[in-house]
Design the sequence.
């Protein structure tokens, strides 16, 4: 279920910017907001159709937030692999994924693209994300997964760095 949700999100992040960019360039801002309103309304209607099954809730003993926090730090401190994963995830999120908010500026100021170009740039970025996820999933039994993840993270960094030297969409 989680993998399908992730794939659905990634596909939405490819199709959405492409359609938005072309719609914005062709018809203007108003039509984009109208389309988003219609899609939101359809989503709300489908959400109302979801049936909810009530299950008996088994309550576990409540721990204080301080106890949970201390237990978490103990796990991170004692297991170096968990510490490395936490550092890796934090750095990737901080330096890699936060750039999505900068994409409009990069597209306009560096690449000199309009809304269509921005849609293409974001869709390309998300396509690379799906390819990376698929590659990791296919090689899940690979012995050196940590090295593989570092290589993929390095490629994210190199591709973002290459944006500095880009003059247009293609090089």
Sequence:
């Amino acid at each position: 279920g989680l993998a399908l949700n992730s794939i659905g999100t990634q596909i939405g992040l490819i199709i959405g910017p492409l359609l938005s960019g072309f719609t914005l360039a062709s018809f203007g801002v108003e039509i984009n907001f109208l389309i988003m309103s219609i899609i939101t309304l359809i989503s709300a209607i489908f959400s109302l159709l979801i049936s909810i099954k009530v299950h008996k809730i088994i309550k576990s003993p409540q721990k204080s937030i301080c106890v949970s926090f201390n237990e978490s730090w103990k796990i991170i401190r004692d297991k170096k692999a968990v510490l490395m994963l936490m550092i890796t995830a934090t750095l990737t999120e901080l330096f890699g994924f936060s750039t999505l908010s900068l994409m409009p500026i990069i597209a306009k100021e560096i690449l000199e693209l309009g809304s269509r170009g921005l849609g293409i740039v974001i869709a390309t970025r998300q396509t690379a994300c799906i390819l990376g996820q698929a590659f990791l999933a296919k090689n899940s039994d690979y012995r050196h997964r940590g090295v593989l993840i570092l290589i993929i993270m390095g490629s994210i960094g190199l591709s973002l760095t290459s944006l500095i030297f880009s003059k247009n969409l293609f090089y």
